[in-house]
Amino acid sequence: MLYRRFGFLQARLLLYKQDELRELEGTLDRLDKVDEKTRPDMLQSREQDDADDTFRKNLMHEIEETFKEYAQLLTVARDLATFNRPPTRDYLSIRRYFDEQDPVSNMESYIYHKEDIVTLKPGREHSWLDSFVESILRRCDSKVIRYVFSTPELRDKADPKLAGVWLIQRERIELLVSLIITIVIVAILIVPIYILFFLTIGPQNGHSISIIISVLLVSTLLFSGVLSLFTRAKRHEILAAAAAYCAVLVVFIGNVGKLST
């Protein structure tokens, strides 16, 4: 769902309408200055001015309509500016398709201007990991991988050996990515506890305490790194989660130490 933003045309339309308003504004200013010298009472009563001459009234209506159009263009431009930019993976995927397959029209060269492309899909939280997994699968391309990650309908549409295009099911890639993330999270939670358990059940000395502190430090750093890479958590959220994770490990060490004594 990648489409053009038409940023250049937006700027041209806004500048054109803005200059129309500037011209109307100048006309109104000149009219006010003339009336200030010749008939100042017309500037004090709208009703009297409309009854005497409708020029200012018609001018104000034209300014109103032009300003409404200008404000509408500004609103639309602001909304388009907040649209998501396509992930590099999605953009390159469409661009490769344009390179390998004939587009609808030979003049469809807009795909080569990435800065003018927007997407209607919200950004995926693990898009970089999706891209990494997809690139690995593409490098290890085989009949088995193609059978698992694409439906028969997709396999019949394009042969990657001939057309350079591989149509896959995003749901299956996302399922594999979710499985990888789950395994990483479980490993980060279980492995440090398993290591700390064997380090704390025996007699403690300065060397073993140093090892325990090192395990806590490395585990917390790994946990923070996973949060940074796999989620959109903000800095203060990562700090709070890392503190909670470290506190859980410290409490575990304390409880195991009491049990061993």
Q: Compute the number of structural domains.
A: 3
Reading side by side through the largest sheet, how are the strands ordered? Answer: 1-2
Give the N-to-C terminal Cα separation: 63 Å
Largest sheet: 2 strands, antiparallel
Low-confidence stretches: none
Q: Which structural class do the helices and strands define?
A: mainly alpha
The proportion of strand residues reads under 5%
Rounded to an integer, what's the Rg over CA atoms?
Answer: 33 Å
Tell me, what's the shape?
elongated
Number of strands: 2
Number of helices: 11
The string of secondary-structure elements, in order, is EHHHHEHHHHHHH
> What's the average pLDDT?
81
**Approximate helicity band:** over 70%
Textual characterization of the structure:
The chain is an all-alpha fold. The chain has 3 domains: 2-81; 88-168, no CATH class; 186-260. It has helices spanning 7-38, 46-52, 55-81, 88-100, 127-139, 143-149, 152-157, 160-163, 170-200, 206-230, 235-260; strands spanning 2-4, 117-119. It has a two-stranded antiparallel sheet with strand order 1-2. Helix 1 (7-38) packs antiparallel against helix 3 (55-81) and helix 5 (127-139) packs across helix 9. The mean pLDDT is 81.
Provide a compact summary of the structure.
With 261 residues, this protein is an all-alpha fold. It has helices spanning 7-38, 46-52, 55-81, 88-100, 127-139, 143-149, 152-157, 160-163, 170-200, 206-230, 235-260; strands spanning 2-4, 117-119.
